[in-house]
Amino acid sequence: MARVPQDGNLLGLDQEELEALAVSCGQPRYRGRQIYHGLYVRRVRDFAGFTDLHREFRDELASRHGILYPQAEREFASRDGAVRYLFRLEDGNRVETVYMPEEARTTLCLSSQVGCALDCRFCFTALLGTKRNLTAGEIVGQVLAACAGHNVARGARLNLVFMGMGEPLLNLPPVLKAVGILADPKGGGIPPRRITVSTVGIVPRIEELGQAPMRPKLAISLNASHDEQRSALMPINRKYPLADLLRVCRAYPLRPWERLTFEYVMLDGVNDSDADAQRVASLLRDLRAKINLIPYNRGPQLPYRAPRLERVMAFQEVLTQSGIPTFIRISRGQDIRAACGQLSLDIGPSGDREIG
Ligand code: SAH
Question: Above 90 in pLDDT, residue 125?
């Protein structure tokens, strides 16, 4: 029997599973490949769109399955062009996806879980706690729905980052399955080097990711320069302290073109001193790495603030001087609570331009 998830969603099934599904309906295997092509290349949204399947088979599929795009319940448009989607899933849970157009490319920030269990002190998603993992279909669905919403054609230059809600490495099999479908030239057609998974540093899962056949790039949320500081900000550091994290990073099988990315949320007076920068430089000294400095995005309830820009630039200078390429990333969509760490199913402060 074909393994179709409980919700009957065809999205998230790979080619082999769709072939098995076709066979289980008494059809030849290649019918499964036609469904695969229809779902991920032609991106049909209802069974009538499968014009290359005969009528009876289409009806049979429709009677048992769905093509379940997450439903855009709200869309918030930023002045900078970013759009935050509040997607409703089949079971009523909600997740957020951020669409960020730039001149030469578009980036989608995807969620991997409903909420998050990790309790990082500065992150608003953490306030939700965790509810459940997303299925591969719900992950692929975020991409297809956001692309459909903005007429992003297949083949357009698109980057995917798993930097929305949740910890992707705590939901690794569905994340990798979705990446496999999205990256497949016969599927989503988004090259794996344009897909990045970001983690707090789940050590055994990093090792597992390194062995995956179709693997995205890896980013690690470092956010601190020593264990005491990191454990205070990110409780997961007690389980996987810096020495363990950096050991798996050193052993990580980087491809020739690849670097590890380290994200560093900058918190005023907490982790932003020159001494912090020097410690970060020595932690990463023997790695092929780059650093993204993310000035803190504020919100209600949490006490942190971003440092002044001069402080961020001085911090950057220390790292650059020690030979590590370091970039300052000003988050998009701050006015619509779509910026890094702000995803919390919030319906947005008044004054948001809400569309849809
Ligand atoms: N759980 C994964 C994926 C989320 S990525 C991870 O932690 O890597 C979200 C990124 O935004 C992480 O680097 C996180 O450290 C950062 N972040 C969280 N809250 C933030 C905030 N309020 N301002 C800026 N960055 C934040």
Answer: no
State yes or no: pLDDT of 13 exceeds 80: yes
The CB-side HSE value for 42 (13 A sphere, CA atoms) comes to 15
Cβ(343)–Cβ(124) under 8 Å? yes
Q: What is the residue whose two structure tokens read 């590590």? A: 324
Q: Are strands 94-101 and 83-88 parallel, antiparallel or unpaired?
A: antiparallel
The answer to whether residues 338 and 125 touch, using CB atoms and an 8 Å cutoff, is no
- Catalytic residue list: 96, 340
Query: Beta strands 326-328 and 289-295: pairing type?
Result: parallel
Cα 154 to middle of ligand 1, angstroms: 28
For the stretch 219-264, pLDDT in tens is: 999 999 999 999 999 999 999 999 999 999 999 999 999 999 999 9
- Closest ligand 1 atom, CA of 331? 24
Choose the residue to mutate in 96, 236, 249, 294 for probing ligand 1, maximizing ligand atoms within 8 Å of C-beta. 294
pLDDT of residue 131: 83
Structure tokens at 28: 């030849």
The yes-or-no verdict on residue 354 having pLDDT over 50 is: no
Instruction: Give, for ligand 1, the residue of 111, 264, 265, 301 to mutate: max count of ligand atoms closer than 8 Å to Cβ.
Output: 265
pLDDT at 231: 98
CA 332 / ligand 1 centre spacing (Å): 13
Mean pLDDT (whole number) for 118-123: 93
What is the pLDDT confidence band of residue 189, given thresholds at 50, 70 and 90? very high
- 58 vs 44, 49, 65, 233, 272, CA distance in Å? 13, 9, 10, 52, 59
Residue nearest to atom 12 of ligand 1 (CA): 221
- C-alpha 264/C-alpha 256 separation (Å) is 24
Q: 340: CA distance to ligand 1 center in Å?
A: 5
Q: What tokens does 123 get?
A: 């992150």
